[in-house]
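Chapter summary example.
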Amino acid sequence: MTGTRLPPPTYPALSYELYPPRNGPAEESLWTTIRRLEDTRPDFVSVTYGAAGSNRETAIHLLKRLLTETTLKPLAHLTCVGSSRAELTEIVERLLGGGVRGILALRGDAPEGIEPRPGDVEHADELVRLIRDVESQRTAQLAAGRVSVGVAAYATRHPDSPSLEQDIEVLLAKEDAGADFAITQVFFQPSDYARLVDRAARAGVSIPIIPGVMPMTSTRRLEKLSGLAGVDVDEALRARLEGARADEDRRRIGVAATVELARAALDDGAPGIHLYTFNEHAAALDVIDALDLERPPQAGLAASL
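The structure predicted for these 305 residues follows.
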């Protein structure tokens, strides 16, 4: 009797965020981080760029190096605010032509003094549609495949949104436009992710929502991000970090808090973890080691078919 072949096991997704280096020493440090993170065999690494594409060329250079010099799969951030439809179309064509097969479609924050022009792409759902339009013209080059398009989700209310319900409506619109998955902005309470997933499911969102977490080892970074995201920092954690006598103690406290947050999300059904690294690998690797995420076996193509 011929046995039935079982489907391959599924593993939590693992990914990291990187940003383009500002100078030579920063680039050298970043590549140390890249090599260390590469050893964990992540599913992808996202590459950011500044408002209105202020350091776009540096980002594209990093994407090219990741594609040609590493085994990593890059996910290119793309924001629409401050760029014309023609400019965005050209960028997407350039990314796809260079081998990028994943794009994180974001609205982005408008730089001071820049007002939208008639016909501009102002929202992320419109940007998703633009990416899909460009993709549809390249089916032969993509071997009839698809570009993976991610979007942002918010575990707490977006600073510009009137309500949590509006945030979910926006997420649903991005899914309807063709998004494949979402990554959350930072959050600090374990219940935030569970509530987001529940709200999204009740509204009809079906794409996977990956929790984005940051190693909470720096009070300065926590305060900066909480201000940008409009999220209150856990005061007990802040006090413990500020009371730490040494950097090693501060790192241990922050890593433990991050692991607790990530583990709670995984227990609530999260499809994986996305780590905001700030181009530093030590705390990120501590988090991954403590989570002990099961990774797919490293095997050749023939063995996996």
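To summarize the output: The first helix runs from residue 24 to 38.
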